Amino acid sequence: MTDPSDIRKGLAGVVVDTTAVSKVNPETNSLLYRGYPVQELAASCSFEQVAYLLWHGELPTEAELTAFEELERSQRALDPAVKRVVDELPLTAHPMDVLRTAVSVIGALDPDWADASPAGNLAKSVALLARIPAVVAYDQRRRRGLPLVAPDDSLGYSANFLRMTFGEVPSEVVVKAFDVSMILYAEHSFNASTFTARVVTSTLSDLYSAVVAGIGALKGPLHGGANEAVMHVFDEIGSADAAEAWLDDALASKKKIMGFGHRVYKNGDSRVPTMKASLDTLVAEYDRPDLLALYDALNDAMQARKGIQPNLDYPSGPAYHLIGFDTGTFTPLFVASRITGWTAHIMEQLQANALIRPLSAYVGVAERHVGR
Ligand code: ACO
Q1: Is the pTM of this model over 0.95?
Q2: CATH 1.10.580.10 region(s) of the chain?
Q3: Domain 22-220+335-351: homologous superfamily in CATH
Q4: Tens digits of per-residue pLDDT, 163-177?
Q5: Which pathway, metabolic or otherwise, does it act in (predicted)?
Q6: Is the beta carbon of 288 within 6 A of some atom in ligand 1?
Q7: I need a labelling partner for 120 at 20 to 30 A (CA). Which of 38, 144, 207, 368 fits?
Q8: What's the ipTM?
Q9: Which atom number of ligand 1 is nearest to the Cα of residue 230?
Q10: CA angle at 321 for the pair 315 and 325, rounded to the nearest 5°
């Protein structure tokens, strides 16, 4: 009989495998993608460069980047068959469910879905990177009664994504803030959705199935769904002067405060200062000091009451709101970015695969027999 004290609920603190994709160091609050601090990547690189880095292990040369950008730009259009399926889905469907369905359709339409060679999976990964923005942008537009916007191949990933969502390219400040959020969300070691994707991959299922499962895991509010949940909290509180009383009520009723806390970082999420700086630029751009005041008031009250630090979803939620995304679109934006990390892990899992199959300690009824 397993000693119950040996069980690590939620696999907390359990190291299940090695990875060369990223390193999270909670002691120093640092996060490295393939050895590079994420803050440096956010300051100096585009999301496309970071995607290339996660997949290839090195930043691209100029020629490699040009070829990679051409490949990404050539696959951005929304497939009419995918659009037809999206159009069939009711507006009551959550945007994460629409995206999960769309990715499933993209996979079912790919005649090479079973090609799990490194080149085959890399091609699928780039295709998903290129194609997910069209689904996310179109879903938000159809909810507003607006038509599809065709991609613009002259634009970088983020500028094109924003144009496909809003019909025009916003200012450079907005494009940069969005690009930074994509870089920060791209990868985070064995988080719940990445681990999910690796579990599915470990059965030798295909890349699309692993990604669809990852989307399902990311949707939950304890994980990626928190960026959406943060905005609901902001809407509920309304203004900075109501934050303290709202928090006291929420804590008294034992609620988890969305956007705070992290399984790995206990002294602050390494990505927050970078995203908060981007949020500051957006607050100035859209002249919304009231939103920043609410952000600060809730954070200050949380620090005073619980001392639990914000995670990346805390600044990214209001940032996406300021850019103009519907609240339900926030977690699909996380998918658009994390597709890079998920697929890097799927390919890494296949390099040295072992079926992921843990054990459990049985605590049910003792053995008994039918009819006795
Ligand atoms: N609000 C209130 N209390 C909290 C919070 C929170 N957000 N986070 C942790 N705590 C408290 C717990 O109640 C618990 O207190 P107790 O020991 O008195 O019972 C203690 O801190 C430890 O919390 P756990 O839930 O055991 O920590 P765990 O590592 O399992 O949880 C998690 C991490 C799920 C992220 C949690 O902090 C949480 O629910 N946060 C809110 C959801 C959220 O923002 N998720 C985003 C994660 S980051 C990302 O996906 C980018």
Answers
A1: yes
A2: 22-220+335-351
A3: Citrate Synthase, domain 1 (1.10.580.10)
A4: 999 999 999 999 999
A5: Carbohydrate metabolism; tricarboxylic acid cycle
A6: no
A7: 38
A8: 0.97
A9: 44
A10: 130
